[in-house]
Amino acid sequence: MSAMFEGNALSAMQTTHCHTLNNYRMGLLSVVCVSLFFSSAFAVDRGNFKTCDQSAFCKRQRALKPSQSPYRALLETLELSDSRLTLQLINDNNKVHLLLELYRLQGNMTRVKINELKPLKPRFEVPDVLIAEPPTEPLTVLSKDDNGVVLSLGAESQRLIVSARPFRLDIMEGPEVLLSLNSRGLLAFEHLCLRKDTQAQPDGSEVKESVDGDQQQDEGEKNEDGESDKEEDGLWEETFKAHTDTKANGPTSISLDFSLPGVEHVYGIPEHADDLKLKTTDGGDPYRLYNLDVFQYELYNPMALYGSIPVMLAHNTHRTMGIFWLNAAETWVDISSNTAGKTVFGKMLDFVQGSSEKPQTDVRWISESGIIDVFIMLGPKPSDVFSQYASLTGTQSFPPLASLGYHQCRWNYNDQDDVKSVDQGFDQHDIPYDFIWLDIEHADGKRYFTWDPHKFPQPKEMLQGIMDKRRKMVAIVDPHIKVDSGYKIHNEITSKDFYVKNKDGRNYEGWCWPGNSGYPDFTKPEMRAWWASMFAYDQYEGSMENLFTWNDMNEPSVFNGPEVTMHKDALHGQWEHRDIHNIYGLYVQMATAEGQTQRSGGVERPFVLTRAFFAGSQRYGAVWTGDNAAEWDHLKISIPMCLSLGLVGVSFCGADVGGFFKNPSTELLVRWYQTGAYHPFFRAHAHLDTTRREPWLFGPENTALIREVIRQRYALLPYWYQLFYQAHKTGMPVMRPLWVDYPKDTATFTIDDEFLIGSDLLVHPVTEEGSRGVTAYLPGAGEVWYDVHTFQKHNGAQNLYIPVTLSSVPVFQRGGSIIPRKDRVRRSSACMENDPYTLYVALSPKKFAEGELYIDDGHSFNYDTKKEFIHRRLTFANNALTSSNLCPDCNFVTSSWIEKVLILGASKPSKVLLKMDGKETPVDFEFDTSMSVLTLRKPGMNAGADWILLLQ
Predict the structure, then answer these.
(1) Residue 246: enclosing H or E segment and its boundaries?
(2) Known catalytic residues?
(3) Predicted confidence (pLDDT) per residue in 828-853, tens digit
(4) Which candidate in 28, 241, 830, 887 could, as Cys together with 470 as Cys, close a disulfide (CB 3.0–4.6 Å)?
(5) Measuring CA to CA, which residue among 474, 287, 436, 429 is closest to residue 365?
(6) Cis before 166 (ω within 30)
């Protein structure tokens, strides 16, 4: 839930009071209060959030224009060890020395670090994001002269060239430049210094200019010491609206530019409500990475949202590469392109006229503090970049199977009777679901880890009732803690001195849902350990093993803070909040996930949803796209937003089905369910001011449509689960853009209204109001795609027009694939545990297909700690369907069996034999001549066994 404003404490108190009224059961007055507020607040107030011009360091850095860099590499300082190369850089304008470190990493990656050689005090380097110190490979010097150094990167004639004057790095493969650093001369490093009214630095030297590269700015005349006579705003103190940010360390920002020859398409750097392909930022604001609670965000602009992952992918028909900028401070990313704005005709004209201009994208990263620490992932294939990034920050956590089912949520289910009624409603209308959610009103006065004694007096009884139906619950636990001497959580955090501090050393306090709140310092390992311990069953009263957690407002959201977040000069030990801001939310989710794991003695997998995130957040659970609106454009944007997250490691993504704010039309609600059912995280959610929208409240016909698509989701759970296992093992995204699997097909490079689930399902949701048809691009020359509903076959490499009705969900299975389903859908995923499988075998034109089947207990870590799982390869070739074991030393038993096999694109056999345990037995079959579909009924083999089905 978003804060609704940013401003003075009075506004915060008034707004918080509106919501507090509800706690005192003043129902009508509460509704009126909230309704009056929201009727005038259905849009982001952009004035509450900074533009680049309003962010002093961004404005300062962006004023630097491309030119010859003032930096020079001092080649005589070069030192080479087995693991790294170091050399010093000097800014010839202010004589400041920097230290450059170069690492060749295993897996075709290069790491570049730049820091001050002798800073006044240490600069922040981001901890806890990398899963380990990346293993290195030796760098070797191929040549060296006065102009630079040429280093070997090992693979395929790859070389790293360090040019000395001006300093520049080029990574080359053969004669081709893959990527250049500082080729536009925009490296700028504001070194730590003392204010002009202080005397001298600790080493006795005089104070110099703090802004490296400031010679490119019009700052007025310099005095004889090289200092500007004009004091620039924002260097030591900055005011935005009513908030003043004091900067004890002065200006500390950093910048570096990257050039990507031959590249026109770049992706990533979520979170933004924008197209999949990133736009150029010339003439507008850069993309901003700064975790913020943005009330009903706008679409198609580069404003910051709830999470930040500073990873960008570059792609063309020859190569995919990635840039990972490891910095947790506020960051802005500028993108420019020499082909931006050119029409297709203009590009064709260039080709006809023989224009030699090569496409190029230039990217510039600007961060407020910290050091330059960048990983260059050289691919060359998309899958290589995913595995490279996963080797650095980890893979998507392997979620419990139930969390891949349907989730029912709103702000808020009123009380235990309401929860029971909604639960029964799903049964009465034969709609499966796995999780029901409770928002902030479930707690006693928004004191998290508690229950409202009037509305939820017997939480265990409620949880047991849900558990009896093999279902689960999620309750919200936010990281703002009510300042209340009668509240155990607050008292313990206070006694342990675990709160974030003001710049003056007192506990930092701000306004959030409970009113006056403290903010735990999750950067402290001991704080995270204590927080984790609070999820133990004897600490979190009323909790049970089927209760899981939602971390909201963890940007952190501070209603009366600057930009609705924490003051940058707040303190986390020795570090300012400005240094760590974007990893605060990651730490909250990390501690919560650890608490869920610990409460089971390390046996059970956690499920934690977070709103704020950073690189590495994928290791701890799921994310969603925040407080969207019941509008068609918000439905459309949910696709590129989740695709962008998948490209940078976060596969477990979804959007609030139906839209959080406002009331969707019936058509929009149905279409949103049809879209959300094919997103990795599938949850309906709604604001407290909206009308109730449980799936059965819109008439029998619409209930049937929603029921059908939720049942489609449940039938596909074996496939979803297998894909999440693959993502957990390899880093491959679950939901992915078409270009990931068709990297040479330029027609796929900008598509973001359809997507792949794994490599075998293509989904083109209907996201236009009143649509009577959609045009889906089916990729793959020489391939075929089968409509999963009609089994009609279509050729690849074509745009296919598909007439649609309100019941239509265009989904296609790739020819050459085998997808396991469970077509007997029950009330929850756990109820389907031992049900049989149906295999959907979609043949390629060469009559070949392959797929996998993965089975484990669905909830524990035994798949990892005890190798208790089944992993089988399914192959159709030479008229035989074979199941073979991919893990012979694994140990798991299932009672599920194969009850049906559908082979699409088949020829009619004379007979079908099952070969198993040395025996051959005939199998009943039917053949649909008109659709070329062969159906094998009840072959009866165990899902974990070796077998062959022979078509003769």
Answers:
(1) strand 243-246
(2) 552, 627
(3) 999 999 999 999 999 999 999 999 99
(4) 830
(5) 287
(6) yes
